[in-house]
Amino acid sequence: MHRVTIRFVRSLVCSLTLLLCLAGTTPAANPAGEGTALRIRDLAGVKVAQQQVQFPAKAVELNGKVVEVNGFMVPLGLGEGKLKRFVLIEVPLSCCFMDGPGIDQMIFVTLAPGREIDSASDFPVAVTGKLEAGLVKNQYGQAESLYRLTNASVRKLVN
Protein backbone atom coordinates (compact mmCIF):
# COMPACT_ATOMS: atom_id res chain seq x y z
CA MET A 1 0.00 0.00 0.00
CA HIS A 2 2.86 2.38 0.81
CA ARG A 3 4.38 1.94 -2.68
CA VAL A 4 1.07 2.71 -4.33
CA THR A 5 0.79 5.93 -2.33
CA ILE A 6 4.32 7.01 -3.27
CA ARG A 7 3.67 6.29 -6.95
CA PHE A 8 0.40 8.18 -6.80
CA VAL A 9 2.02 11.20 -5.14
CA ARG A 10 4.89 11.21 -7.65
CA SER A 11 2.44 10.96 -10.52
CA LEU A 12 0.32 13.75 -9.07
CA VAL A 13 3.32 16.03 -8.56
CA CYS A 14 4.54 15.40 -12.09
CA SER A 15 1.06 16.02 -13.52
CA LEU A 16 0.72 19.28 -11.59
CA THR A 17 4.18 20.36 -12.74
CA LEU A 18 3.22 19.70 -16.36
CA LEU A 19 -0.03 21.65 -15.96
CA LEU A 20 1.82 24.58 -14.42
CA CYS A 21 4.35 24.50 -17.25
CA LEU A 22 1.67 24.48 -19.90
CA ALA A 23 -0.30 27.19 -18.13
CA GLY A 24 2.82 29.32 -17.87
CA THR A 25 3.83 29.20 -21.52
CA THR A 26 2.13 32.48 -22.37
CA PRO A 27 4.65 35.28 -21.89
CA ALA A 28 3.97 37.23 -18.73
CA ALA A 29 3.41 40.94 -18.81
CA ASN A 30 6.73 42.74 -18.59
CA PRO A 31 6.36 45.48 -15.99
CA ALA A 32 9.31 47.42 -17.40
CA GLY A 33 7.96 47.14 -20.94
CA GLU A 34 11.29 45.81 -22.22
CA GLY A 35 11.51 43.39 -25.11
CA THR A 36 9.09 41.65 -27.39
CA ALA A 37 7.34 38.65 -25.82
CA LEU A 38 8.59 35.38 -27.30
CA ARG A 39 7.83 31.74 -26.51
CA ILE A 40 10.50 29.07 -26.78
CA ARG A 41 8.16 26.97 -28.91
CA ASP A 42 8.15 29.80 -31.50
CA LEU A 43 11.84 29.02 -32.09
CA ALA A 44 11.32 25.30 -32.73
CA GLY A 45 11.27 23.89 -36.23
CA VAL A 46 14.77 24.71 -37.43
CA LYS A 47 15.51 22.92 -40.70
CA VAL A 48 18.83 21.86 -42.16
CA ALA A 49 19.04 21.61 -45.93
CA GLN A 50 22.32 21.02 -47.78
CA GLN A 51 24.29 21.98 -44.65
CA GLN A 52 22.41 25.30 -44.39
CA VAL A 53 20.38 26.11 -41.26
CA GLN A 54 16.95 27.57 -41.91
CA PHE A 55 15.39 29.34 -38.93
CA PRO A 56 11.65 29.83 -38.35
CA ALA A 57 10.21 33.19 -39.43
CA LYS A 58 9.81 34.39 -35.82
CA ALA A 59 13.50 33.77 -35.09
CA VAL A 60 14.55 35.66 -38.23
CA GLU A 61 12.19 38.54 -37.41
CA LEU A 62 13.47 38.94 -33.84
CA ASN A 63 17.16 38.20 -34.44
CA GLY A 64 19.21 41.04 -32.94
CA LYS A 65 16.25 42.47 -31.04
CA VAL A 66 15.50 42.56 -27.31
CA VAL A 67 13.00 39.87 -26.34
CA GLU A 68 11.51 38.45 -23.16
CA VAL A 69 11.16 34.68 -22.83
CA ASN A 70 9.64 32.63 -20.00
CA GLY A 71 11.09 29.28 -19.01
CA PHE A 72 13.17 27.29 -16.56
CA MET A 73 16.90 27.60 -15.89
CA VAL A 74 19.48 24.84 -16.32
CA PRO A 75 22.82 26.04 -14.89
CA LEU A 76 26.02 26.04 -16.93
CA GLY A 77 28.31 26.35 -13.94
CA LEU A 78 28.77 28.58 -10.96
CA GLY A 79 31.47 31.22 -10.69
CA GLU A 80 32.28 32.08 -7.09
CA GLY A 81 28.91 30.66 -6.03
CA LYS A 82 27.03 32.82 -8.53
CA LEU A 83 25.34 31.87 -11.77
CA LYS A 84 26.17 34.02 -14.82
CA ARG A 85 25.25 31.62 -17.65
CA PHE A 86 22.45 29.10 -18.03
CA VAL A 87 20.23 27.40 -20.57
CA LEU A 88 16.58 28.44 -20.69
CA ILE A 89 14.08 25.68 -21.51
CA GLU A 90 10.29 25.67 -21.72
CA VAL A 91 9.53 22.95 -19.14
CA PRO A 92 11.54 21.79 -16.13
CA LEU A 93 13.89 18.87 -16.70
CA SER A 94 12.21 17.00 -13.85
CA CYS A 95 8.99 16.65 -15.82
CA CYS A 96 8.34 12.94 -16.33
CA PHE A 97 6.17 13.34 -19.45
CA MET A 98 8.80 14.64 -21.83
CA ASP A 99 12.26 13.94 -23.14
CA GLY A 100 14.92 16.58 -22.87
CA PRO A 101 14.57 19.54 -25.22
CA GLY A 102 16.13 19.60 -28.66
CA ILE A 103 18.79 22.13 -29.56
CA ASP A 104 16.12 24.34 -31.17
CA GLN A 105 14.23 24.43 -27.85
CA MET A 106 17.14 25.70 -25.75
CA ILE A 107 18.31 29.28 -25.37
CA PHE A 108 21.82 29.86 -23.98
CA VAL A 109 21.69 32.89 -21.68
CA THR A 110 24.56 35.16 -20.65
CA LEU A 111 23.65 37.73 -18.03
CA ALA A 112 24.62 41.38 -18.43
CA PRO A 113 27.94 42.41 -16.84
CA GLY A 114 27.51 42.85 -13.10
CA ARG A 115 24.37 40.71 -13.01
CA GLU A 116 24.39 37.30 -11.41
CA ILE A 117 22.00 34.92 -9.72
CA ASP A 118 22.58 33.08 -6.45
CA SER A 119 21.59 29.74 -7.99
CA ALA A 120 19.39 28.04 -10.52
CA SER A 121 15.86 27.25 -9.51
CA ASP A 122 12.93 25.04 -10.30
CA PHE A 123 10.54 28.00 -10.57
CA PRO A 124 9.70 29.76 -13.83
CA VAL A 125 11.60 32.90 -14.77
CA ALA A 126 11.30 35.65 -17.36
CA VAL A 127 14.54 36.47 -19.15
CA THR A 128 15.03 39.66 -21.14
CA GLY A 129 17.98 40.03 -23.49
CA LYS A 130 19.16 40.45 -27.05
CA LEU A 131 18.27 37.40 -29.18
CA GLU A 132 20.97 35.94 -31.37
CA ALA A 133 19.86 33.29 -33.85
CA GLY A 134 22.62 31.42 -35.62
CA LEU A 135 24.55 28.19 -35.48
CA VAL A 136 27.49 28.24 -33.04
CA LYS A 137 29.85 25.26 -33.12
CA ASN A 138 32.23 24.12 -30.40
CA GLN A 139 35.96 23.52 -30.87
CA TYR A 140 35.22 20.07 -32.35
CA GLY A 141 32.88 21.39 -35.04
CA GLN A 142 29.74 20.12 -33.32
CA ALA A 143 26.62 22.24 -33.01
CA GLU A 144 26.60 23.93 -29.60
CA SER A 145 23.69 26.35 -29.85
CA LEU A 146 21.19 27.86 -32.22
CA TYR A 147 19.80 30.57 -29.94
CA ARG A 148 21.37 32.87 -27.40
CA LEU A 149 20.20 35.74 -25.19
CA THR A 150 22.99 38.17 -24.35
CA ASN A 151 23.21 41.10 -21.97
CA ALA A 152 20.28 39.47 -20.17
CA SER A 153 18.38 40.08 -16.96
CA VAL A 154 16.22 37.60 -15.04
CA ARG A 155 13.17 37.92 -12.84
CA LYS A 156 11.10 35.31 -11.02
CA LEU A 157 7.55 34.73 -12.20
CA VAL A 158 6.45 33.36 -8.81
CA ASN A 159 7.18 34.46 -5.25
Q: What is the CATH class?
A: Mainly Beta
| Order of SSEs | HEEEHEEEEEEE
Helix content percent band: 10-25%
User: What is the strand arrangement across the widest sheet?
Assistant: 4-7-8-10-9
- How many domains would you count in the coordinates? 1
The CATH fourth-level homologous superfamily: Protein of unknown function (DUF3299)
The fold-level CATH name is: OB fold (Dihydrolipoamide Acetyltransferase, E2P)
Low-confidence stretches: 1-29
**What is the gyration radius calculated from CA atoms?**
17 Å
What share of the residues does DSSP label as strand, in percent? Answer: 35-45%
Structure description:
- The structure is a single chain.
- The protein has 159 residues and is α+β, with helices and mostly antiparallel strands.
- The chain has one domain: OB fold (Dihydrolipoamide Acetyltransferase, E2P) (Beta Barrel).
- The protein has two helices and ten strands.
- The strands form three sheets. It has a five-stranded mixed barrel.
- Strand 9 and strand 10 form a beta hairpin.
- The termini are far apart.
- 25% of the residues are buried.
- The N terminus is likely disordered.
